[in-house]
Amino acid sequence: MKAPLAIVTMVYNESTFLPVWCRHYTAQVGDQACHVIDHGSDDGSTDALGRVSVTRLPRTPQDDTRRTRFLSEFCAALLEWYDAVIYVDVDELLVADPALFASLPDFTAAMPHGGVATAIGLDIVHRPFAEPDLDWARPVSLQRAGVRFSSAMCKPVAIRRPVQWAPGFHCIDAPPSFGRLFLFHLRYADLGDGLDRLARTRRQPWASDEAARHQRMSDVEWAGMLNGMAHLPLRQDGDWSETDMVLAQWVERVLRSAESREHDTYRIDLHLSGDELWRLPPRFLGAF
Q1: Directed axis angle between helix 219-230 and helix 191-203, to 10°?
Q2: What do you get for the CA distance between the two ends of the chain, in Å?
Q3: Its Gene Ontology molecular function terms (predicted)?
Q4: What is the reported pTM?
Q5: pLDDT 10s digits, 38-70
Q6: Which of 83, 108, 157, 160 has its CA 20 to 30 A from that of 196?
Q7: Nearest CA-CA partner of 111 in 156, 149, 151, 80
Q8: What is the CATH number assigned to the segment(s) 3-284?
Q9: Other Cβ atoms within 10 Å of 125 Cβ, number
Q10: Domain coordinates of the chain in residue numbers?
């Protein structure tokens, strides 16, 4: 008999996001089914996680190819002990549609044996002209109104068979398979904390000068990008149900983009971004 679900992330000095990640996912699967891979943190952020499972690795320059290879193997090994495994970055919170599922284990239990589930990716967007700084001790969904669709966040996150993720965890060696699973990305949820994290990722060693340029852009570039998203029109009426045609059209665009990429490392177009913000439907308020 296997346990239902393990949830995995990998971190380095994530004192802001890691407590949020732990609060969200331990509520879903319990402490010991949450696995934090600590890549050499030295800020104390992984020292007091209670019964959360922590695996400590020596610090090395950030290498996304090495990282995804390791985590693909780690998650595959966990499948010996769990029916399903989820991998998400520390700034990514998954919610199975509350209209259909009580929890993430309920969602993964409904996946076919050997299946993989792709999340519907949404950036939480801070609108500084209308919203105060985020209080990370409170649910994010009660403090931020708008999200933006992002194909880059449409990640294959839940697995019931071993997979090999591409660098960045955006794709595997199979086309996307969407279910009623939503990924809320926190990178743009707060202007000030986003700039603080950007300063840290700029300072850390990287295996390649060309890798992850979006993690090393200037403050001016990053703030300008967030400001552009914040000023998109805010759509009020979407309910994100299976009959919501606006959401369905964006998901369909991602699926169509995969049709000519079956031999590519990245199986979808990662640059499909919403042209408006969507207000969170009431059933998601308080869910993360």
Answers
A1: 150
A2: 30
A3: transferase activity
A4: 0.96
A5: 999 999 999 999 999 999 999 999 899 999 999
A6: 157
A7: 156
A8: 3.90.550
A9: 25
A10: 3-284
